[in-house]
Write a structure and sequence with these properties.
single chain, 429 residues, alpha/beta, 9-stranded mixed sheet, 8-stranded parallel sheet, 16 helices, binds N-(iminomethyl)-L-glutamic acid, binds fe (iii) ion
Length: 429
Amino acid sequence: MNGNIIIKNAEELVTCSGFEAKKGKEMADLHIIHDGAVLVKEGQISAVGSTNEIVTEIENSKLDLSAFDTIDAANKAVLPGFVDSHTHFVFAGYRAEEFSWRLRGDTYMEIMQRGGGIANTVASTRKASTAELIEAGIKRLDSMLSIGVTTVEGKSGYGLDKETEIKQLEVMSHLDNIHYVDVVRTFLGAHAVPQNFKNHADAFIDYIIADVLPEVTGKNLAEFCDVFCEKNVFSVDQSRRLLSEAKAQGLKIKLHADEIVQTGGAELAAELGAVSADHLLQASNEGIRQMSEAGVVATLLPGTAFSLKQPYARGRFIIDNNCAVALATDFNPGSCFTESIPLIFVLATLYMHITIEEAVTALTINGAAALDRQDTIGSIDVGKKGDMVVLEYPSYQFIPYHLGVSTVEKVIKTGNLIFDKEKGGIIHC
Ligand code: NIG
Ligand code: FE
């Protein structure tokens, strides 16, 4: 496990080359090298080109080949590792019964308003020990890894009190240290109004600002701050108040915006210079225009629309209006209990009218940009981390075509082969 690897003969080396978010038309260009090769040294990509070019370069540089693993990717496509830039994967308890209630016609908001939904997971997560949350977290990360996710974002928000919010963030920090998958942490203390602040959302925002946020930033527990900006949850004014304070304390900004009702969340994201605004099912034309101008990544979550039987966010329209779109799972125990990148991919292409090329961009370089990591991950470029997937098939076009099933055969993380279907799964060492 020295981070040295050579991948050669790739039928398609889908580099997604770039160091910033791709907007609008740029999303269609995947910068593919046919018969491509990549050299990774000590975890970092050090050469990318045709197999001929890279083999010659290796010969000329008299590299000690015994220190390198070699993967022959003949007849296979190679892509950057997937970036799942919006999840809530650290939680305890499940809400399977809510799914059946929704099948019989109850809405997500109705369930939430009668004390189920997020509050249900909050009760279980408050009771769970750190060790239990870590154990569940490892299993979920293993599952993500085995379908090609090399970086995941995770949110707190199932505590809604200082102790549990901190516990969730510390669990994610620990998971980041012990697991192959990189975990980016987001503080979502304003995910719902807890029972003890019922009908006092403003007072709850005061409490988060005064008591919880300083502890989160003081201990450097999160990189982003997020809020559920939604009718009957947190208003635009309440969201602005919290996010402005978080920004002043050095956090970058994300929003759950315009998911169920159009409240002006997209406009707020642009106003605050958020890194991303997520969901956007109901975002206004003006909000989308402002996001494009302000360079806010539009993170779309088709699994949630699918699971809640809501109309999908207007993916085609958002790209045509020159926004950068990322796709993510929204993995959580309520509105969208899936870590399945293949499902997200096929839903985006079939129902959001996003092309296959755009969906690849949305799950790689634009996913990285949604986490402000466009400089270090999300593409196969010299200087970036050696995070890649090798598909079982010769083309990226197989990703949605194999409906809802992972086409990933191998996962390379920081230059090490850590998952191989042919070797029985995750390679533990
Ligand atoms: O992104 N919308 C709010 N938060 C999550 C759902 C969380 C839950 O239901 O537990 C979401 O869909
Ligand atoms: Fe979410």
